[in-house]
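Hey,
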Amino acid sequence: MILRCLLFLACTATRILADVQFTSPDAGGTEAGGAKVDVEWKDSGDDPKLSDLVSYQLFLCAGGNDAASYIQLSVLVANGDFKDGNKASVQIPAAIGGTDKNAYFLKMISVATGGTVNNYSPRFTLSGMTGVFPPTVQAGLKTIKGTAGPETENNIQSTQQNNAAGNAPAAADGAYGQAYTLQSGPTRYAPMPPMPVSKISANKQSRLHPTSAISGFAKTHLPIPVAKTTMTQSQTHLTTSIENTAADAGMPTDAAMQKFLNRWKD
């Protein structure tokens, strides 16, 4: 029985890792820095499917596997579209890092209905690099064993788990249920605001919605915003109230007032 439970948990953990699986660069391989590198990926076979993903951003990272031990060195693809295929040719600047073995990996932030998913490639080496890693990256590299990159961060899965646990509202209908990043036009739609839960856990809190990806600050004038109005789905939660039938508190009696005034006699 215990063995069956362990096998179930192992399969469940595997399904949380999802969508994009990098096939190039090779794990532990070496690519030329300062030149173009071919990046390829495929559907991992887990939810969400690759066909459910809409757009992506691709970053070159270096350092350890913990979020605090690596940095994003370069934005390789600022606004990619999965409709364009499962590969991209990117330019690697030679001056952004060193030549340490297995120091580099790719980070892809994919957008789908309901949130984002962060996938990481296996580690690889870049030859011909002319830069120097900052102390954060150097310290992170000392903790690395093997070629595995950071674990997948499936924010879509987290949202689904919250809904199943009753910590989030039911899925919105129609336009209100479409992710903001997938909407267009002057009017945007927001789902119904959630109601406070009856119980709060101090140890099992998670984000209601995924964080937004930031690839850097604008270097040129931004286009004029198109969205002008946000429509929020009407709240269906009902509240009831009753009249307070308790009698009003009476005024102090003369004796009580005199006792109070006597405190101020000289």
